Amino acid sequence: MSKPLEKPLPPADDDCCGGGSCNPCVWDHYYAELQKWRITQAKLNEEALKEQQ
């Protein structure tokens, strides 16, 4: 089984300028990494369930 990835941490309050014009925003990057993490976690959970059978 693969080693689980660490869950990404949200940006600190002072990482975001709050202006709304950054492209990509630090929050865009965070949400993309969080989505990758969730997909990986789901795959790992699925593998773990198959191993238990």
Task: Give me a quick take on this structure.
The chain has one helix at residues 26-52. It is mainly α and 53 residues long.
Question: Which terms summarize this structure?
Answer:
mainly alpha; 1 helix; 53 residues
Describe the secondary structure blueprint for this structure:
Blueprint (H helix, E strand, L loop, with lengths): L25 H27 L1
Report on this model:
- It is a single chain.
- With 53 residues, the protein is mainly alpha-helical.
- The chain has a domain at 23-52.
- Helix content is 51%, strand content 0%.
- The protein is elongated.
- The model has no long low-confidence stretch (mean pLDDT 89).
Mean pLDDT metric: 89
Q: Determine the fraction of residues in helical runs and give it as a percent range.
A: 40-55%
**Secondary structure tally: strands:** 0
Query: Whole-Å distance between the termini?
Result: 15 Å
Largest sheet: none
- What is the count of DSSP helices, taking H or I runs of 4+ residues? 1
- Rg over CA atoms, rounded to whole Å, is 15 Å
Principal-axes shape call:
elongated
Query: Low-confidence parts lasting 5 or more residues at pLDDT below 50?
Result: none
Q: Structural class of the secondary elements?
A: mainly alpha
The helix/strand order is H
Strand content: under 5%
